[in-house]
Design a protein that fits this description.
The protein folds into two domains: 63 residues, Arc Repressor Mutant, subunit A, CATH 1.10.10; 145 residues, Tetracycline Repressor, domain 2 (Orthogonal Bundle). It is 74% helix and 0% strand. The chain contains ten helices and no strands. The termini are far apart. The N terminus is likely disordered. InterPro entries: DNA-bd_HTH_TetR-type_CS, Homeodomain-like_sf, HTH-type_TetR-like_transc_reg, HTH_TetR. Keywords: DNA-binding. GO terms for molecular function: DNA-binding transcription factor activity; transcription cis-regulatory region binding.
């Protein structure tokens, strides 16, 4: 029996090794993302990732210098994807209200469809590591820049950036609560609609819009 198992593993490894390099790298990233999101950075081994991907551990090091380099690349890729999702959703909106609605809907949809990536980026464990925290802060600043550029109001740049932080924090805090409710109340439900995701996103967007539309420049204060 053991020889049969090794034979299957060896056959899988041969198939994965025949993949083009870019496809093999994407496969590694996919399996690494799942393991890191489930167990965290320190508790996940490169051997686990290799076995899950159906390759040998030395193959991983053909693509990544270390487990830390692999983790940092994943953080960067998830951050880029989230920024692109928000940007694509809000581009072309005819009004600021529509822009806010689309932005929140895309954020909730991303968190639902990319649960592992969202946990990797906004989970608490990696924030204890200085290098990971620096990368996450860089990504958060990029998201903040994007949201700041979308706030159309006669206020200073500093004021718009402050509001952007509030908009982002509202989204993150609500999404994490919503995801916990999904996991505890009905973990078998997989559809974004069936999890009441659109309703949550709409309500939070309306709350944010109600606040943003009342913002005015403070007399004698440009900050």
């Amino acid at each position: 029996m053991e020889s049969k198992i090794h034979e299957v593993v060896d056959q899988n490894s041969e198939r994965q090794l025949r993949l083009p390099g870019d496809q093999r790298k994407r496969l590694l990233l996919k399996h690494a993302l799942w393991h890191f999101s489930q167990k965290g950075f320190h508790a996940t081994s490169m051997q686990e990732i290799a076995t899950s991907a159906g390759i040998t551990k030395p193959v991983i090091y053909q693509h990544f210098a270390s487990k830390r380099a692999l983790y940092l690349e994943l953080l960067n890729l998830v951050g880029i994807e989230l920024c692109n999702v928000i940007r694509d959703a809000t581009t072309g909106a005819k009004t600021v209200h529509e822009r806010v609605s689309r932005g929140y809907m895309s954020y909730f949809q991303f968190a639902h469809d990319n649960r592992a990536g969202y946990e990797l980026l906004f989970g608490s464990g990696q924030r204890l590591d200085v290098e990971f925290q620096m990368e996450i802060s860089r990504i958060e600043n990029e998201i903040s820049d994007l949201v700041t550029s979308q706030i159309d109001a006669d206020i200073s740049e500093a004021h718009r950036r402050f509001l952007a932080l509030g908009v982002i924090s509202l989204a993150e805090g609500t999404v994490r609560r919503w995801l916990r409710e999904i996991e505890t109340s009905d973990p078998g439900v997989t559809s974004f609609t069936d999890t009441n995701g659109p309703m949550w996103a709409t309500r939070v967007a309306e709350l944010a819009w109600a606040g943003l539309r009342g913002i005015q420049r403070e007399p004698g204060n440009d900050s």
